[in-house]
Amino acid sequence: MPGPGATPHRTPLRRISQGSLFALSRSSAFPDAPHGLGFLEPAMSELLDEAEALQANVEGLKGLSESLETFNEAFASYLYMMTMNSLTVDWPQEPTEISYELAKRRAEQEALAAAQPPPPEPEPSRSDKTATEGPAETTYTGDATTFVTAPTEPEAPRPKKKGKPKLTAKEKKERAVYIEKVVQTLPLEFRGNDPTLRRHVEMVITPLMERAGEGVRLHELIVPPDLNQARVNKCLIVLVNRRVVQKDNSTGQVLYYWVGLPA
């Protein structure tokens, strides 16, 4: 330890950098430099200018962001409008005036055909009656040369199979309107995005409606070559999902029952 009269050791101070504000204020090269804290005034003024420039730049970025947001919203609305316009106006397969005239003429012809009575059946000729009655029965009376021929009873006519009753023009129109309501409940691709798929689903709905209450198997709905099994299966899946058709496999085979739209 140093003695009582010795000078105590002191840690040397760090050398001040030449660019520091303190060195600037203490430098002899600048005799007019401010003393004390006066050197802070020009530095704070420069800092204030830079802060104002930074704030102006941030405000500019904010305005740019708002402009981009407004443009994005307007452009998205424009794209949505173009999509809706293509689905409602741009329809290349829309019916023309000739189509309406042909449909009206066809409806009138069907109404006239339904109003006319069916033609009467022709009466059977004598040869047909003989063929229908069949051969006569022969009875032996004991005499070798005498036979008594007894007429046989004519066979009862067989009932004719009745075909499906033809729908009137009004019934066909009502069925077409109902099928249109069913199609409107299906996804967009069945409602006009794909005209071929729309026609296929109508071809599947029609026999199901005609056999309402009866189970219909999948292969009974196939109409080759246009309506194949894959198309029928796709249409049945979407109809079952919309609960317009009910699928039942409790009997060991898959059957489809027409349910229709809920009342």
Automatic annotation (TrEMBL):
Matching InterPro entries, A to Z? DASH_Dam1 (IPR013962)
Q: Does Cytoplasm appear among the keywords?
A: yes
Highest taxon, organism lineage: Eukaryota
Kindly name one Pfam family recorded for this protein. DASH_Dam1
Chain residue ranges for the region called Disordered: 106-170
Tell me which Gene Ontology terms the entry assigns under biological process.
mitotic sister chromatid biorientation
* Principal cellular location given in the protein's record: nucleus
Q: Where does it reside?
A: Chromosome, Centromere, Kinetochore; Cytoplasm, Cytoskeleton, Spindle; Nucleus
Cellular component annotations (GO), alphabetically ordered: DASH complex; mitotic spindle polar microtubule; mitotic spindle pole body
- Give start-end of the signal peptide: none
Q: Which family does it belong to?
A: Belongs to the DASH complex DAM1 family.
Query: Under which name does UniProt file this protein?
Result: DASH complex subunit DAM1
Q: Which organism is it from?
A: Gloeophyllum trabeum (strain ATCC 11539 / FP-39264 / Madison 617) (Brown rot fungus)
